Amino acid sequence: MRESARPRPSNAHGARVPVALTLALAAACTQQGADTDPAKSTEGGAVSDASTSAATTTESTSAGTDSAGTSGVTSTGEDTTGGYIEPDVWEPGISFPTPREPTRRGLLDRRGLIHAHSVHSHDACDYEPKDERGVPDEECAQDFHRGLCRAQHDFVMLTDHNESFSSTPFTDALLYRAERGDALLEREGQPVANMISCAEVDAGAATEIRPLVLAGCESGTMPVALAGHVSDDEAERAAIYGSDSADSIAALKAGGAVVLVAHTEDYTPAQLIETPLDGFEMYNLHANLMLNLGKAAVLVAKVEQGDPGLPHPALALLPIITEDPAYLDTWSMTLAAGARRVTTMGTDCHRNTFPQLMADGDRVDSYERMMRWFSNHLLVEPGPENTFDERQLRDALAAGRLYGAFELLGFPVGFDFHALEADALTREIGGESSLASAPALRVTAPTLYKLDPAATRPLLTLRLLRATAEGWEEVATASADEGAPLDLEHTPDQPGAYRAEVRMTPRHLAGYVGEYSDLLTGDFVWIYSNPIYIVE
Questions:
Q1: CA distances from 278 to 284, 399, 432 (A)
Q2: What are the pLDDT digits (tens) for 18-53?
Q3: Per CATH, the architecture of 410-536 is what?
Q4: What does the domain layout of the chain look like in residue ranges?
Q5: Is residue 449 pLDDT above 90, yes or no?
Q6: CATH for the stretch 19-37+39-409
Q7: Residue 491 has pLDDT above 50, yes or no
């Protein structure tokens, strides 16, 4: 069967509703609804010195220090210095670090954000990210840092807006602070990434998991993982960042970037095919909000009223998380036409929309809350001792080895999607296999990490879908309660782009959804994978 497409007015390129208007609309809807260590190597991805290439913590059972200046943590993420003790049971609002060791066929699963705005975006921090002297809002900057650490991400690919980003020194754009204990990664003496120190975070994080910060920009396109500003001249680089021309995209790629675009609702499949991009978004939280603005406004009104029937604060926006057929159909039609594009999930956090405080004392739109909801999982080739740096992240993203997970529903462990050819050769997500190789597409359902044994198990459904010009066509499906063996295998008989999906009926959230009991029987996407390409 094919997923039905919802008619949607086409938007001009870049013509989306600004957040300020979103707020105005939300306010109106609320009134209506009130009643109801520097690691150095050669440039260009050349083989680096194994003793200095580490960009994250290494596996260790002692508090030793690796060559990048990061302390060891155990494979479960427990800080062996005694600062962090991993919770025994998951509940909403708890994040876990990714396993330190490879999880499948030698690949590391590294989790993080792609599309996030810091104090170097003009519209972040309630539209006042810097004062008249250009000094960043320290409280907002700390909120970003604290959220990133507590969400226990391995990386963040920033996408600050051109108005501020192009005039910001690259080291500052990496959010580097020496006094905090951050460590810059350098290539040929130039900073390319920043290992954030989480040592100052008071609670809720394995403080020796050091998120890797990469710089990028959201303007004409959305280049991420830049290795430096594309020009020493501010006006020239502002022009390049602000353009979506083929020449500008080529300059961005030459500068090390993976060139994406955000807000897929602003693009037609033809634009995504004709523009020499690397990818676009399969999901964006801002777009999701615009689809459900009335529901969001009612929720905010209930927050302001202190309504006791609200869901757990960590599940605040679960009632408005829905799929957007425009995103799904555009994704399918683009791939069905033969284009290969990686797709990402955009948090698009600004901390500028919902300042209301929830029961936990934090803003509705705090960086921490936004950063915990979902993430991008990159499957990276590990360096020595299971380390990685910005190059492996960039390579995994460009290769399409990515799946997205809504961790607000729980942390998935063991998800796998690959093609196994007749000669036992494996093709990973983002890879290619031919029909002549008789590939079997295999999907393995994840389990919920540290789910409370007393909780009702959620229902999981695996789906395998093929991109067509009319939308995603389901070719195989299987369901079972979480924890029961659940696998799906399909041998394709026609070429195409095939992706896997894990859906969930979140029965385990009983006791956390307040008066929104219908959520317990709802059908939510838990995981979206990028495709495997089957060719003739």
A1: 17, 9, 16
A2: 444 444 444 433 333 333 333 333 333 332 333 233
A3: Sandwich (2.60)
A4: 19-37+39-409, 410-536
A5: yes
A6: 3.20.20.140
A7: yes
